[in-house]
Amino acid sequence: xxxxxxxxxxxxxxxxxxxxxxxxxxxxxxxxxxxxxxxxxxxxxxxxxxxxxxxxxxxxxxxxxxxxxxxxxxxxxxxxxxxxxxxxxxxxxxxxxxxxxxxxxxxxxxxxxxxxxxxxxxxxxxxxxxxxxxxxxxxxxxxxxxxxxxxxxxxxxxxxxxxxxxxxxxxxxxxxxxxxxxxxxxxxxxxxxxxxxxxxxxxxxxxxxxxxxxxxxxxxxxxxxxxxxxxxxxxxxxxxxxxxxxxxxxxxxxxxxxxxxxxxxxxxxxxxxxxxxxxxxxxxxxxxxx
Length: 290
What we know:
This protein has one domain (about 15-290): Rossmann fold (3-Layer(aba) Sandwich). It is built from 10 helices and 9 strands. The protein has helices spanning about 15-25, 95, 135-150, 165-175, 190-195, 200-210, 215-225, 230, 250-260, 275-290, and strands at about 35, 45-55, 60-70, 75-80, 100-105, 155-165, 180-185, 240-245, 265-270. The protein has a 9-stranded mixed sheet, with helices on both faces. Helix 3 (about 135-150) crosses helix 4. The longest helix has 18 residues, at about 135-150.
């Protein structure tokens, strides 16, 4: 693979107005947060809550919300939505030190009424037009969760970290957070990278292009509204970007343009393949920023 990888996509002309409209729509919807203590998931060191929020649609969302016992405010860690049907409770070790929130976005289990997403299928749901694409609502859901954290007295708003992939990077571009831990964003350079793999969700776009060649250009145009590359100049927080080894779909080489475009400091971490070692480095980076 060439060391001078350059994505072919260009920023959509209506990119900024598109996201301004999402923000404006979200501002009209009352979040109506409800917190209910979940005694089964609470521990001697952390209280767990079932959290309910309303996002655009309107759409009612579920999230796991955990608050350490003791005197706050505490740093917070938000696990932003990924391409997966099931979202689980936040890691045990996090709940000792952090307020932790794991959001079930629309379509994911526990937030799957009235919309239950298919996997595969979600990545092309409504993709014919940017206004109807499924991830428009999912990004709005992510922003709603960040805004909830920013509103809470027990949260130290100066120490909020987002962890995820595209939704974390986009959230950091649209909201003030301290840091981002991101890995393998699927929307980045999608038109260039999808043909190099048969892994999902990229294969959803490959299949769509094969079965509906007349609609392929519209699909790639929609995906351009979600490419982290075009959000990167607005990311002022510190970023830890986890990449695969040389030859991976998302490697140091392919991530290069994204790294260069981010306004804040970016630390690129190449995974070793040893999960424990990689996770330990990630925790060290996270803890150093809180």
